[in-house]
Amino acid sequence: MKNYTSINDIDNIDTWISEAKEIKENPLKHKALGQDKTLGLLFFNSSLRTRLSTQKAALNLGMNPIVMNVSGDAWGIEFGDGTVMNGNTAEHIKEAAAVVSQYCDIIAVRAFPTLTDKAKDESEQVLKAFVEYASVPVVNMESATGHPLQGLTDALTISEHAKTSKPKVVLSWAPHVKALPHAVGNSFTQAMQKMDVDFVITNPEGYDLSPEITKDTPIIHNQEEALKDADFVYVKNWSSYDDYGKVLNTDPSWMITKEKLGDAKFMHCLPVRRNVIVEDAVLDSDSSLVIQQANNRTYAAQLVLKKILENG
Ligand code: CP
Q1: Can you give the pTM of this predicted structure?
Q2: Taking the CA atoms of the chain, what radius of gyration do you get in angstroms?
Q3: What is the structure's pLDDT at 50?
Q4: Which ligand 1 atom sits closest to the C-alpha of 269?
Q5: Backbone angles phi, psi at 280, to 5 degrees
Q6: Ligand 1 neighbour 150 (Cβ under 6 A)
Q7: Is 147 annotated as a binding residue?
Q8: What is the three-class DSSP state of 9?
């Protein structure tokens, strides 16, 4: 594997989950693999889990991680081709990616969407520019439309906690005060489509994810109906896709409560706003898998880095 930019880069999710479980059992087994190799982590946006778990994964493989907050700390990067750079950008991605490639054996990038320009976001301008102009492999640490490290983590977590051979998994929209990206919902949907699970999505009218992502996954606009007999309820807010980036609905009745959850396990990628997305009683109970999910971020990242190092 050269790059990991999307859940579509996973050839067989069951094999990948098995490999991630092996890594989790013995995280330092491949410590020699990354010796004298450098992972560069470039953040255009904030992070807690991705930043720390990906560094931890690199350290477990013997790599040296180096981190940069690009927004604010680096020169403003220009992505447009042929731009007369007499504005706020001081360095072109062609030079920036080539230079960072000399310092790093793998480059990992986080760059969120604008949520104002659908075409630009769907073009994955930042991630694709790094893939094009870097001479080393590129890992997506959450881009405009996908969060494939999170999606792989979530698949691993469901596999670990499933009590039946084909669990029912529900992706439920929940309210939020701000406009949030579609990336987590998109990658979770793509991961579930690759797994042998009974998968449905529930969200209010006007909040359907891109049909290019949801494909034939059932979308149920009645949350109560969707949650029936669920084994896993994965909760996430996203802004409208049709009315791109807009907050159309903050209806608190979509918040997940202990009563709605029933016997199902609760999942969320974190960070989560308590008593907006989900009530305290869920997060503070054994039904919540959010801490286990965050732990699995290390092993998902480690598997991805290991596959890239083995390919190199
Ligand atoms: N889930 C996740 O990606 O967390 P961070 O934004 O803190 O990295």
Answers
A1: 0.98
A2: 19
A3: 98
A4: 1
A5: -50, -40
A6: yes
A7: yes
A8: helix
Domain extent, residue 249, equals 148-293
Tokens of 105: 């054996």
Do the annotations mark residue 51 as ligand-binding? no
pLDDT > 90? residue 236: yes
- Helix (H) / strand (E) element for 67: namely strand 64-69
Tens of pLDDT, residue by residue over 128-156, are 999 999 999 999 999 999 999 999 999 99
Do 131 and 241 belong together in one domain? no
Compute CA distances 221 → 30, 89, 270, 278, whole Å: 46, 43, 24, 18
Residue 222 Cα to ligand 1 midpoint, Å, equals: 28
Confidence of residue 262 (pLDDT cuts 50, 70, 90): very high
Nearest to 197 by CA among 223, 229, 225: 229
Count: domains in the chain? 2
Pairing of strands 138-140, 168-173: unpaired
Residue owning tokens 């290390």: 298
Q: What is the mean pLDDT of the chain?
A: 98
274 marked as binding residue:
no
142 and 154 assigned to the same domain:
no
Amino acid at 111: A
pLDDT of res. 303: 98
Indicate if 237 and 155 belong to the same structural domain: yes
Within a 10 A sphere around the Cβ of 206, how many other Cβ atoms?
13
CB 106 within 8 A of CB 37: yes
In eight-state DSSP terms, residue 285 is S
Asked if 105 and 161 sit in the same domain, the reply is no
Q: Determine the atom of ligand 1 nearest the C-alpha atom of 142.
A: 3
* CATH number of the structural domain spanning residue 52: 3.40.50.1370
pLDDT at position 312, please? 77
> Does residue 297's CB lie within 6 angstroms of at least one atom of ligand 1?
no
What confidence score (pLDDT) does residue 233 get?
Answer: 99
Say which DSSP state 208 is in.
Answer: P
pLDDT in tens, 15-69: 999 999 999 999 999 999 999 999 999 999 999 999 999 999 999 999 999 999 9
ipTM over 0.95: yes
Q: Are 171 and 227 in contact (CB under 8 A)?
A: no
